[in-house]
Amino acid sequence: MEAHIRANRFGLLKVDRAEAIGNIETGLSGVLNSFHNLYDAIQKQMAPAPINWYESAPLALMLVLRNARHHNHANRIRTLYSHYLQEASEIGTMESYILIDFPCPEDGANTFDLHVSWGDLKHLFDLPKKDTQIKDMTRSIISDYLSTSKFREYAELYKLPESKLCFNIIPLFVNAAATITPFIKDHCEPDSSEARFFAEHFCSLTKADTQNHEVDCGPVAFI
User: Fold this and answer.
1) For 41-59, what is each residue's pLDDT tens digit?
2) Which side of the chain, N or C, has fewer Cβ within a 10 Å radius?
3) What is the predicted pLDDT for the residue at 122?
4) Cβ contacts of 64 within 8 Å, gap of 6 or more
5) Contact call for residues 137 and 204 (beta carbons, < 8 A)
6) Which long-range contacts (C-beta less than 8 Å, at least 24 apart) are formed by 9-15?
7) CA distance 174 to 195
8) Taking the CB of residue 5, how many other CB atoms lie within 10 A of it?
9) DSSP class of residue 24?
10) R_g of the chain, CA atoms, integer Å
11) pLDDT band at 156 (very low <50, low <70, confident <90, very high)
12) How far is CA 120 from the centre of its chain?
């Protein structure tokens, strides 16, 4: 969130594009690595694990995205920022993208936006299983969770390739946290008021709706 605010609200994206996007990419990797570290800790300290992450779509998605970025698969699942910089015909020109968001039913509970490439995730799913270690069941539950069958319809509607479709990762972070927190809350010892708040918050919040998308299409340019 701090990297997003500095880049967009405080204007770092216009002053130093490389630093702004680098900060966002680092922040994204940091969150995904934190989920992976939590996964490892649970396997070691809570045997038997209270939930199979690879059978829970919100959690499986976190591990799949983390591993793709860690192993440099499928362009490391690029953010919209990186996708634009690498794919735009010329930096500064307008490029049309389809942007998918997952709304929260609660008033005022929506998140900020950080879109990542569906085209890259789709490519990851198409790679040989011996390279990615992604099982068919994992791929299937993630696709069902995100309702990716609708993505092609959106691409056809807006007359753009699926590679120009990106989805907001932030509400999916929240959903993953809300999925795992109830299983580990009693094993945690929060040492700050902020930690205590989130331990309770992630046990009671309403998850984002991943079946009924908010869809927007328009021009994007990062000068």
Assistant:
1) 999 998 888 999 999 999 9
2) C
3) 98
4) 124, 134, 138, 142
5) no
6) 13/222, 14/223
7) 15
8) 11
9) H
10) 18
11) very high
12) 12
